[in-house]
User: What shape does this take?
Amino acid sequence: MSPHHPPITISDVEVIDASPRFDLIEICERCGVDQALIIAMVSYGIVEPHNDYKVPEQWLFIASDLLRLQKALRLKRDLSLNLSGLAFALDLLDEVNTLRQDINQLQHFIKTMQQE
Amino acid sequence: MEFKDYYKILGIKDNATTDEIKKAYRKLARKYHPDVSKEDNAENRFKEVGEAYEVLKDPGKRAEYDQLKQLGARGRDGSFQPPPNWQSASHFHETFNGDSQFSDFFEAIFGQQGSARRHYSSQGFQQTIKMRGDDVHHRIGLFLEEAYKGCLRTLQFQVPEADNQGLITHRTKTLNVKIPAGVTQGQHIRLKGQGAPGIGGGPNGDLFLEIELAPHPLFHAEGKDIFLSVPVTPWEAALGSAITIPTLGGKVSLIIPAGAQSGQRFRLKERGLPGTPPGNQYAILQLAQPAHHSDKAKALYQQLAQEESHFNPRQKLGV
Assistant: This one.
């Protein structure tokens, strides 16, 4: 049985805004993959660097790009997807998410209309 | 411990072929992948399916499992005990990059030492491998009021942890996190070093929290801006008036100018979510009137209709 661990209190958190802050080296380290794979994933449009496209050393990514890459790598590993299929799946997932949000909002709207 | 019927988990017959097993696994992995699935309990189902496939795809392990299924003692409550002196023949080793967490049942069958628990530091391993811990992601749902004021959130989740021998176990970690005021939908909060532990002296991963705002009955948030639909009567819009409307920070007075139109937006500066700069609240007018009018009111409307008969609201419709 695991010993009792007291809760850790964190009162100083970092809110990550939308500014690009992760370079290619850090992205690779956090994803545990080689640069070549990230470069290939960029070439398939899985994420877009937020500055000069031609020089990978200068690429910068935002926090949601990092999440997207990590999610992409999990999907690639668990479902044995190739990069083209992966890019396609992610695009469809994005679309599904947007549609779900729209549906939620519409349902909410309909509900308030009915109440009135 | 609970007996796991791997065949049932994959939805296949006991005599399924390797191809059938593979096919069933692939289908369920797509269905329950935690990054894709919206099913309840998807993560556990995905792990279960992965564990079942790990055993059944390998003819050696499958044979052992089948044997156990026949021989294993079952308690009255359905609990399962492997036969005494049971030892797995397959020296199963989980691959290093795998992230799965197998059940007690699996470990009882295929052994603790050589199986699901990963050795990170056996015999000089620690000196050669130095790896950053994985980043961990969670979503946290907040009410708009909480996003406005900031709040304290207690988070509990399972984290892998290396013990003295370098074995990876999982424990529950509790964090009390102060969410600052003014976070917005989809924004991320990073807690440095609170992700998975580093290996061989590597740094810990970070914990990323993605903010998910619950739909609010009145307000609708876009970034830091807050939108509110405000019903007004035709006479309030026509004559202008001072009305009271809610904001996240409390009630405020809004001056409606005479001749205001339905759909017109009024900006209440810096009444949105706080920050630098803070967001605004937008009040959108919506004309509302009683469903039934008194005879006197009807007479007044008739008077109004005569007075403003020159106005054609459907001019743009070409009629």
Notes: The first strand of chain B starts at residue 73 and ends at 74. Confidence is low (pLDDT under 50) at residues 93-100, 112-127 of chain B. The two ends of chain B are 77 Å apart (CA to CA).
